[in-house]
Amino acid sequence: MARYTGPKSRIARKFGEAIFGADKVLSKRNYPPGQHGNSRRRKTSEYGVMLAEKQKAKYTYGVLERQFRNMFEKAASANGITGEILLQSLESRLDNIVYRLGIAPTRAAARQLVGHKHIVVDGNVVNIPSYAVKPGQIVGVREKSKSLEVIANSLAGFNHSKYPWLEWDENTKAGRYLHIPERADIPENIKEQLIVELYSK
Asked: Looking at the domain that runs over 97-179, which CATH code has it been given?
């Protein structure tokens, strides 16, 4: 699937948040990019605020518009709070689970590991980053990939107790997806209700 490959610091500055992980540029230039980024700007419209929130969610999880809209429509047709279900669906993606388990330092790196067949789900290689992991499934590193430097470096010192919906086994280099996370447990600073309102217009 195509994805954004441009300058990530530029996107982080646009939203004023390190949505791709630690970003040193934000500490120096915490204002939007461009010639007039540091000057006073017009107040953003209500629609603009909602659109920006959707864009932030898409960039955070590395999902393009069509796939994001499909996920929203599935969430809207499910029983429950639409925005919360949407975030839970994004959190259940295989690339995101690999990132949350600390196997990769960023979601982009996690996507690459999945695409290059370094990741297994219940012992079977899965190379689809958008694969929806179900509660009870075990996500781990393929046996011959466990010595990869990028994986070893990412796992070194990673705090596996950060996410209560995941359980890590250091011996097998695998984690179990215990249950769908509650909204309060998802750390992303996304106002999902604004996304729901945008698509409902």
From this structure: 3.10.290.10
